[in-house]
Predict the 3D structure of the following.
Amino acid sequence: GEQLWQGRQLAMLIGPQDKDWHLVVLVRYPSPQAFVAMLASVEYQAVVKHRTAGLADSRVIAMEEL
C-alpha cells in the first residue's frame, strides 16, 4: 500500500459529536486482493496485535475512485 494523506481532526462539523479522531490516514492499495493478501500475511499477523493494542477505536473503509 501507499500512504496518500495523513491529518488530524480540527472539529467534527457533521457527525457524532462524541468521536474525536486523533489521526486519519488515507492509504491506496494496488487492489482489494492485495489488501486481503496483506491481512493474511505472516508478517502482518505478527504485528497486528500492536495496532489493535494501540487504538481505542478505528475504522477501515473500502472505497473506490469515481
